Amino acid sequence: MSHMKPQLDQAAMAKAFFGSQHPLFNALGVDVVAVADAKAEMVMPFSEALADGLGALHRGTLVTLLDTTCGLAIFSALRSLRPIATIDLRVDYLRAIPAGSGLRAVVECIGWTDSVAFVSGRAYAAGDEMPLATVTGSFAIDTLGPAFDTTDRSAA
């Protein structure tokens, strides 16, 4: 359940971007729950194909979800899909990912300069309010990468 006010234009852009332009996120089942006011919330369902030997999602999937949610929070703060790149991402694990559980990430962009954005957030097991991990990071703004095309081509 999202605790953020919905901002339809940003959420719709993010869903189009992640749904039609990123086969990886599509394959992982990543979904945008909310995007508003420099905050983002995304979820990833459990997938047996991505599970570790204990039946839980591999920790790498959690890092991928957190990194992606950090980027989305930055896009919300900047109010544009300018190219960004991860400079530093720190994930502190507080407990193990439960077997068979999906994931939820909630991240806020806590500040930015002309060239760097800073984020902080948490990851949770689906349906649980006890954090699995915390994340902090810094991201370069206006990197040399391409600008993001938000055109939804799935209906074409």
From TrEMBL:
GO terms for cellular component: cytosol. The keyword Nucleotidyltransferase does not apply. Residues 55-128 form the Thioesterase domain. GO terms for molecular function: 1,4-dihydroxy-2-naphthoyl-CoA thioesterase activity. SUPFAM superfamilies: Thioesterase/thiol ester dehydrase-isomerase. Keywords: Hydrolase. It comes from the Bacteria. NCBIfam families: unchar_dom_1. This is Uncharacterized protein (TIGR00369 family).
